[in-house]
Amino acid sequence: MTYVPARNIIFLSYALSYAESNNINDIFIGVNIVDYSGYPDCRPEFIESFEKTANLATASALKKSFKIHTPLIKLSKQEIIALGLKFNVDYSNAHSCYDPIHKNGKYYACGKCDSCILRLEGFSKNNSCDPYLYI
Fold first, then answer.
1. Which of 52, 132, 127, 58 is nearest to 93 (CA)?
2. Residue 82 near residue 100, CB atoms below 8 Å
3. Euclidean distance between CA atoms 86 and 103, whole angstroms
4. Is the Cα torsion angle 73, 74, 76, 81 positive or negative in sign?
5. Of residues 80, 73, 62, the one with CA closest to residue 25
6. How far apart are CA 21 and CA 36, in angstroms?
7. Residue 134 gets which letter from DSSP?
8. How far apart are CA 33 and CA 27, in angstroms?
9. Residues forming a β-bridge with 102
10. What is the pTM of this model?
């Protein structure tokens, strides 16, 4: 299991600061509970708690509340990849790897970490090949 301490707290904190500075009240994050690999900050309870905190801790929330949107939270990796394929996401431009390797000026996904395994399974279940480079 790979674990990045408090990663979604950090992402949401930056997003909240940007949103408040730009009069934006809707914040979107791609957390996922189904394949979350032990990340407690991917759970709906965390998102609800952060949203409540955002609305207590910011001046602009006194006028209009912040809403944290999690459109992928209950989708499987297979469903997320299918959705991306439907909308022509160029998956060759992004990887999910937690241990990428830089070689000859390019980054390659390891294919062994939890994130790579889930991603590869998602593509396989969609009868598709992941276009990202793997070692």
1. 132
2. no
3. 31
4. negative
5. 62
6. 30
7. B
8. 18
9. 107
10. 0.86
